[in-house]
Write a structure and sequence with these properties.
EC number: 1.2.1.41
Family: Belongs to the gamma-glutamyl phosphate reductase family.
Radius of gyration: 24 Å
Enzyme class: oxidoreductase
Subcellular location: Cytoplasm
Protein name: Gamma-glutamyl phosphate reductase
Helix content: 40-55%
Shape: globular
């Protein structure tokens, strides 16, 4: 493998200073962005075979250098545990051999997907003979700001490369050691196949100051995607001058309808809450119809599986023997626990369930468990979230699970990108107009 001077995208831009001045930070981040823009022009011309070769090389190298990645990750996890990081965030931070295999598989899946660049959104020939095509093209330079999620480093890099973009990463101090290894690895792989290493760069060496410069780099960065908790996302949305695609936190609801089958309800709730509680598509609030026959078994099974219930008075009154719950407050209805906690409320109708969801939703994912087709159709029609699910776990709101290969994040906005953001969401369009001398009259 050809060696790459990866420090040209990180520490060397700090002009040899351990504590760079604001002017040095700005200049360094701008140099990275300018190199990214040059790389983006080359990536936009790369054909599918070339980009897929890069993805296969990265996947191969991630597995081949697994021990190095895991050693760096263990250092991050150790620092996180010593600093009192919650178990939920430690779970997001942790890589395992199985998770590394998953990253490689996701890259290979991406390589197998069609290239969105050049695909025609629509086209026609006008009466005057002008031939029109609206085609998908790369966004250009994508900035990504996220925290404590080294898997996102690989996912975003892979998606950006396949869609012909360059990406600038700010992965946060919690995963600094892991991200350094991963970015170096990715840049090595790009150099090996003859694509520009500067298509993937990190500004982590500049810390929060670098992230603030990235947010203001309008004209150098085409779009910014934050991925993390509410505080991070709102900071980016509030302070960025670069256009932002907002990925939202997941205050996810499941409505247990009166007709919900017991076995199905138990299986779905267990999966939606306990399969990986630290992620954004985990259910955080369960709304139980007062006539739901599955209610007691669902609550008993969740409690037996270690779920801590935060319930309203009516739910606490029907809890099976031995099952305990704390009294829920408004703070519980609006909270993304990202842990083995679940807010539970009883409602008497679909109307009450819909009203509760409308008040507290973050617009991420909502689900209904029901045996009533009319109720399912009404829920679909009236819930205004990025994903609406009927009789399945909320854990399926995920780019990989939905066949997108991976995801940059889950957008809760009502823009061109809503829900899991895969390859096509990292493109924009341009109009191609071809004529034979036509002039406007």
């Amino acid at each position: 493998m050809t060696a790459v001077n990866t420090t040209s995208a990180t520490s060397d831009d700090r002009a040899g200073s351990e504590a760079p001045s604001p002017e040095e930070v700005e200049a360094g981040v701008h140099r990275i962005a300018d190199r990214a823009r040059t790389a983006a022009r080359r990536m936009a011309r790369a054909n599918r075979a070339w980009k897929d070769l890069a993805l296969e090389q990265i996947a191969q190298d991630v597995v081949a250098r697994r021990d190095v990645v895991l050693a760096a990750n263990a250092e991050d996890v150790r620092r996180g545990r010593e600093s009192g990081t919650s178990e939920a965030l430690l779970d997001r931070l942790t890589l395992t051999p199985e998770r590394i295999d998953g990253l490689a598989d996701a890259l290979r899946n991406l390589a197998g997907l069609p290239d969105p660049v050049g695909s025609v959104a629509r086209g026609q020939t006008l009466p005057n003979g002008l031939r029109l095509r609206q085609v998908h093209v790369p966004l250009g330079v994508v900035g990504a700001i996220y925290e404590a999620r080294p898997n996102v480093t690989v996912d975003i890099a892979g998606l950006a490369l396949k869609s012909g973009n360059a990406v600038i990463l700010r992965g946060g101090s919690a995963a600094a050691s892991t991200n350094t290894v991963l970015v170096d690895l990715i840049r090595d792989a790009l150099d090996t196949v003859g694509l520009p290493a500067d298509a993937v760069q990190s500004i982590d060496s500049y810390g929060r100051a670098g992230a603030n410069v990235l947010m203001k780099a309008r004209g150098r960065v085409d779009v910014l995607i934050p991925r993390g908790g509410r505080a991070l996302i709102q900071n980016v949305v509030t302070n960025a001058a670069v256009p932002v695609i907002e990925t939202g936190e997941g205050n996810v609801h499941i409505f247990l309808d009166e007709t919900a089958p017991e076995e199905m309800a138990v299986d779905i709730l267990l999966n939606a809450k306990t399969q990986r509680p630290s992620v954004c598509n985990t259910v955080e609030t369960l709304l139980v119809h007062s006539g739901a026959k599955a209610a007691r078994e669902v609550l008993a099974t969740l409690a037996a599986s270690g779920v801590r219930l935060h319930a309203d008075e009516r739910i606490r009154a029907i809890l099976p023997g031995g099952v305990e719950a704390t009294a829920a407050t408004d703070e519980d209805w609006g909270r993304e626990y990202m842990d083995l906690d679940l807010a539970v409320a009883m409602v008497d109708s679909m109307d009450e369930a819909l009203d509760h969801i409308r008040r507290w939703t973050t617009g991420h994912t909502e689900a209904i468990i029901t045996n009533d087709l009319a109720n399912a159709e009404r829920f679909i029609a009236e819930i205004d979230s990025a994903a609406v699910i009927v009789n399945a776990s909320t854990r399926f709101t995920d780019g990989g699970e939905l066949g997108l290969g991976a995801e940059v994040g889950i957008s809760t906005q009502k823009m061109h990108a809503r829900g899991p953001m895969g390859l096509k969401e990292l493109t924009t369009t341009k109009w191609i107009i071809q004529g034979e001398g036509q002039v406007r009259g």
